[in-house]
From TrEMBL, chain A:
UniProt keyword list: Leucine-rich repeat, Prenyltransferase, Repeat, Transferase
Example GO BP: prenylation
Repeat listed as a keyword: yes
Keyword Chaperone: no
Its biological purpose: Catalyzes the transfer of a geranyl-geranyl moiety from geranyl-geranyl pyrophosphate to cysteines occuring in specific C-terminal amino acid sequences.
Pfam families found in the cross-reference section: LRR_4, PPTA
Family membership: Belongs to the protein prenyltransferase subunit alpha family.
Protein name per its UniProtKB record: Geranylgeranyl transferase type-2 subunit alpha
InterPro entries: Leu-rich_rpt, Leu-rich_rpt_4, LRR_dom_sf, Prenyl_trans_a
GO cellular component terms, A-Z: Rab-protein geranylgeranyltransferase complex
SMART domains documented for this protein: LRR_SD22 (SM00365)
Source species taxonomy: Eukaryota, Viridiplantae, Streptophyta, Embryophyta, Tracheophyta
TrEMBL record, chain B:
Reactions catalysed: geranylgeranyl diphosphate + L-cysteinyl-[protein] = S-geranylgeranyl-L-cysteinyl-[protein] + diphosphate
GO CC annotation: Rab-protein geranylgeranyltransferase complex
Domain of life: Eukaryota
Name of the protein this chain belongs to: Geranylgeranyl transferase type-2 subunit beta
Species for this entry: Olea europaea subsp. europaea
Functional summary from the UniProt entry: Catalyzes the transfer of a geranylgeranyl moiety from geranylgeranyl diphosphate to both cysteines of proteins with the C-terminal sequence -XXCC, -XCXC and -CCXX.
EC id: 2.5.1.60
Keyword Transit peptide applies: no
Note on cofactor: Binds 1 zinc ion per subunit.
Highest classification ranks of the organism: Eukaryota, Viridiplantae, Streptophyta, Embryophyta, Tracheophyta
Any one GO molecular function term: metal ion binding
Entries under SUPFAM superfamilies matching the protein: Terpenoid cyclases/Protein prenyltransferases (SSF48239)
A Pfam family assignment: Prenyltrans
Length: 750, 221
């Protein structure tokens, strides 16, 4: 690492503008580096050296050594530049390398010398014995260098290079490795080298597995050995193909093996990380289609009036669309790619499947996302439609693949019907649009009435074929239940932070299995318990409190969206009075829940009005799937930059946005910059359109991120006060970008 | 093209001693003050460009990915990323991705915070961060913070001030830096100061050096 760091220092200093104007800084740096360059002793010993001023004698001895080394170094450089490869020259380089194994030029010189010798050999006759002598000598030098510093990148690499020239008994190598690994079992150089040798010598994975077993029995706290074990087992699983039962029995043994470590020393992290990997291996499911909008079995009513859609009560769903188009959203269990008109076919009278274009809803530009979108329309000539069927067939042909390379194989069907009522109301374009007030008095809790029994039909119900159910779900369910029991057992005697976290993860994994794999044997998931565990963790481990808050938010959202019943508890009707459900505007109010992030939105695709105010939200990743969203309240949260609002760019229906009282502009570092599709990342492909900049007419230097977010939005109402970034310049820009903006920070602009 | 003699020296030095480039860079910079600013910039650009292209395209790429990171960074700064095969570089980085979310220095190698910084940095620059599981890696990284508030480089190792940079900047790139307690980290860095002679060391009461002073200060920012 150290050499890189030097250069990284230099480059970072240059780019931050520190170096050029300040000669003083540089000179002092240079002094240090000169000493480093000439002596390199202090450079090598930068870690773990106690801080005490050296005595006079020590200082003199050190100066003497430095002087000797300077001479040696200049001698060596002379030999190197003049390509002198005699025995004496090589000895000089060996002396240098023993004192400083990080001297890359020294190792390169030796490589050049060996190459020179080998080339010379091939010209005369191949004398394998003398080649062996030369290579042996190299290995000896490496060994001596490693004795000085067994973490030297240069030395280990040289050894690999020498071996690649064809040589040496592997037993000797393994003995050497054994020595080093005894000295420091976490030396990753030794482990890397071990992997190199086992590959060269074609030692079997099973043998190596046994070696890791021995290392672990020697000392449970050996993360490197556990890591190697996971690598070896992954190879084995891959090699043996898709045979489930074999993998299952191995995993069972591994669970038992790691349990020993965990019960012996519950506070050591090494075993717990391995346990997490085992859990991941166990619950690896194929990607699944979780939900869609419009939902299966509904009747979609398209209308051209009312800018906020009417109540979305299953099975009758209203959707307002001025341009006669409606979206279809597919939501998968994980990010997938390959969704296109060949893998997903749509049977619909008024639109040809070949014209359908599916777009991934994600911030990156690589064509993979959890949610996918397309639009269908009905032609102008058609003024009235009654129960026109639409059928979406997902994965009739293969091609949809998760980012891990697992294919989506279960064919799913979504069928709904389309109705277009003849217009019975005047087109309300010209009317003044009232301002949405996010005040409590405007919201009325939704009163569940008897006819809402139909609401208990889950909105995400899909017709999944029998083959869709996970084959090994029974074994997974049994094993998870077993692990949960063991974990509880451990926690009854120790209050171990990572044990609690593992239990919370196990319970969540169990809930995932239950919801995806039917039947579930009546096992209920107790979200309250999981939430309680995270509260405990916040107290037990306050250093990582924000991590636990994030996880807590995800569990809470899972609990809220568990059933239609639980969702409706958070639903309110917006308006001045309680109106019959047909005309009410439904709003999902999730305020004051200490939410810090969004997730598990598969059952919320129908939401049009969402109130997330008074939480701790930093990231709204996940909201891009809510394509029907027209009113969004994010006020009084912790949004730190415009880049964090990137998911909103994909919400074409968004009309009302409240981001007041956040922290935009209050932080010097924008942590979302590389995660959103800003043109500032140096990807080779760049769709940044510079002409757009020129046409706006406002100085964009300070607000290019606001430009990027708002240029595609057509908001009617925006609240932005209470953010540090707000300025007259920004306001001018926003007015220019969104000419239809009627309400800004509570004021009517017309 | 008329070659500036200084550029010639740069070129020659480069070919001779690619391994000592880091030292050379510092020395080079000091000499900058003796010549005009335009030539300074020119030299630096050419130097970085040649170095980066040579490095990425050489076989050394496999063992010393951290140099490839520098090369990618330099090329991006100079808007010359299209001179290398970015896809191949990204593919190599991903082959080093581990099951715990982190990156090792070769395929199959254990995750290490410094290596993670290089890989995540390279992926960020090339717009390929979607391959990273931010939650998994973020948790691995935030667990580097130990009770004393300092950060270590791997599980069950001692904390070290230089990891304030490697771990922290990785977390920033994947937007998980709030998973670390910043105040405790700042306190740890300040505890590593030598209050009498100045400078910062790797751990409290150890000897100071420029390396750790820089990363301590960078981490604090």
């Amino acid at each position: 690492m150290n050499q890189t760091s030097g250069t990284t220092v230099a480059i970072s200093l240059i780019t931050s503008g520190f170096i050029l104007p300040r000669k003083g800084v540089l000179s002092s740096c240079q002094i240090q580096i000169t000493e480093v360059g000439e002596g390199r002793k202090r450079y090598r010993k930068m870690h773990g050296i106690s801080r005490k001023t050296p005595s006079q004698d020590e200082q003199e001895a050190s100066d003497l050594k430095a002087a000797e080394l300077r001479d040696l170094q200049s001698q060596f450089l002379h030999l190197h530049h003049n390509k002198i490869y005699t025995k004496e020259a090589l000895e000089t380089s060996a002396k240098l390398l023993v004192v400083n194994p990080e001297h890359y030029t020294g190792w390169n010189y030796r490589k050049l010398a060996v190459q020179h010798f080998l080339d010379h050999q091939s010209e005369t006759e191949v004398d394998s014995e003398s080649i062996q002598l030369v290579l042996n000598e190299e290995l000896r030098v490496v060994e001596n260098a490693l004795k000085k510093n067994f973490k030297s990148y240069g030395a280990w690499y040289h050894r690999k290079w020498v071996l690649s020239k064809g040589h040496s008994s592997m037993d000797k190598e393994l003995r050497l490795l054994g020595k080093f690994q005894k000295l420091d079992s976490r030396n990753f150089h030794a482990w890397n080298y071990r992997r190199f040798i086992t590959m060269l010598k074609k030692i079997s994975d099973e043998e190596e597995l046994q070696y890791t077993t021995d290392m672990i029995f020697d000392n449970f706290s050996n993360y490197s050995a556990w890591h190697n074990r996971s690598v070896l087992l992954s190879h084995l699983f891959e090699k043996r193909g898709k045979g489930h039962s074999h993998k299952e029995s191995i995993l069972e043994e591994e669970f038992e093996f790691v349990r020993n470590a965990l019960f012996t020393d519950p506070d050591d992290q090494s075993g717990w990380f391995y346990h997490l990997w085992l859990l991941d291996q166990m619950v690896k499911l194929e990607p699944l289609l979780l939900s869609s909008w419009p939902p299966h079995g509904c009747c979609l009513y398209l209308s051209v009036d009312d800018y906020i859609g009417c109540g979305n009560l299953f099975p009758r769903i209203h959707f307002q669309s001025k341009d006669r188009m409606f979206p279809i959203v597919l939501y998968f269990s994980e990010a997938v790619e390959g969704v296109n008109s060949s893998t997903v076919t749509i049977e619909y009278e008024y639109y040809s499947n070949d014209d359908v274009i599916w777009r991934p809803l994600s911030a990156n530009r690589f064509g993979c996302a959890q949610a996918w979108l397309t639009y269908l329309n009905f032609p102008d000539e058609v003024h009235f439609l009654k129960d026109s069927p639409v059928k979406v067939v997902v994965a009739q042909f293969p091609g949809i693949v998760s980012t891990n390379g697992v294919s989506f194989s279960q064919t799913s069907y979504i069928e709904f019907s389309l109705c277009v009522p003849s217009h019975d109301r005047e087109h309300t374009e010209g009317q003044t649009i009232p301002r949405i007030l996010w005040k409590n008095e405007k919201f009325h809790p939704h009163i569940t009435e008897s006819h809402d029994a139909s609401l208990l039909n889950p909105l995400h119900q899909l017709k999944i074929t029998e083959e869709g159910k996970s084959k090994s779900s029974d074994w997974s369910m049994k094993t998870i239940a077993n692990e949960i029991a063991h974990c509880r057992d451990l926690l009854s005697s120790t209050n171990c932070k990572i044990g609690k976290l593992t239990l919370a993860r196990l319970l969540m994994a169990q809930s995932k299995l239950i919801s995806y794999c039917i039947p579930n044997d009546g096992v209920k998931v107790h979200y309250e318990e999981i939430l309680g565990l995270y509260h405990d963790l916040m107290e037990l481990d306050p250093v990582h409190i924000c991590y636990y808050e994030d996880e807590h938010s995800l569990v809470l959202l899972k609990q809220v969206t568990l059933s239609m019943e639980s969702i409706l508890r958070y639903c309110h009707q917006y308006g001045d009075s309680i109106s019959p459900s047909m005309d009410s505007h439904f709003c999902l109010r999730l305020n004051d829940l200490s939410l810090s992030r969004i997730g598990n939105v598969e059952r919320l695709l129908w939401i049009q009005m969402l109130d997330l105010s008074h939480n701790k939200i930093r990231s709204i990743e996940g909201l891009e799937a809510l394509q029907l969203l027209s009113c969004l309240n994010l006020s009084n949260n912790k949004i730190c930059s415009f880049a964090a609002l990137d998911p909103l760019r994909m919400l074409k229906s968004l009309k009302v946005l409240d981001i007041s009282y956040n922290e935009i502009g209050a932080h010097s570092v924008d942590t979302r910059r590389y995660l959103c599709s800003f043109p500032m990342t140096h990807a080779v492909k760049n769709d940044w359109n510079f002409e757009e900049f020129a046409n706006v007419g406002v100085d964009l230097t300070n607000h290019w991120d606001a430009f990027f977010i708002f240029r595609g939005l057509n908001l009617i109402q925006l609240d932005i006060l209470g953010n540090a970034v707000v300025s007259d310049q920004l306001k001018q820009l926003l007015f220019k970008l969104m000419p239809s903006l009627n309400w800004f920070d509570g004021e009517n602009r017309n | 093209m008329k070659m500036d003699p200084f550029q010639v020296i740069c070129g020659v030095k480069l070919i001779r001693g690619i391994s000592s480039h880091s030292i050379f860079l510092i020395l080079l910079l000091d000499l900058f003050f003796l010549i005009s600013k335009i030539i300074q910039v020119w030299c630096l650009l050419i130097f970085m460009l040649i170095l980066s292209i040579l490095w990425i395209n050489s076989d050394n790429n496999n063992s010393f990915f951290r140099f490839s990171y520098i090369a990618i960074c330099s090329l991006a700064l100079l808007h010359q990323l299209d001179k290398i095969n970015v896809e191949k570089a990204v593919k190599y980085i991903l082959s080093c991705q581990n099951l715990d979310g982190g990156f090792g220095c070769t395929p199959g190698a254990e995750s290490h915070a410094g290596q993670i910084f290089c890989c995540v940095g390279a992926l960020a620059i090339t717009g390929s961060l979607h391959h990273v599981d931010e939650d998994l890696l973020g948790w691995w990284l935030c667990e580097r913070q130990v009770k004393s508030g300092g950060l270590n480089g791997r599980p069950e190792k001692l904390p070290d001030v230089c990891y304030s940079w490697w771990v922290l900047s990785s977390l920033i790139m994947i937007d998980r830096v709030h998973w670390i307690d910043k105040e405790k980290l700042v306190k740890f860095i300040l505890d590593c100061q030598d209050k009498e002679n100045g400078g910062i060391s790797d751990r409290p009461d150890d000897a100071v050096d420029v390396f750790h002073t820089y990363f301590g200060v960078a981490g604090k920012c």
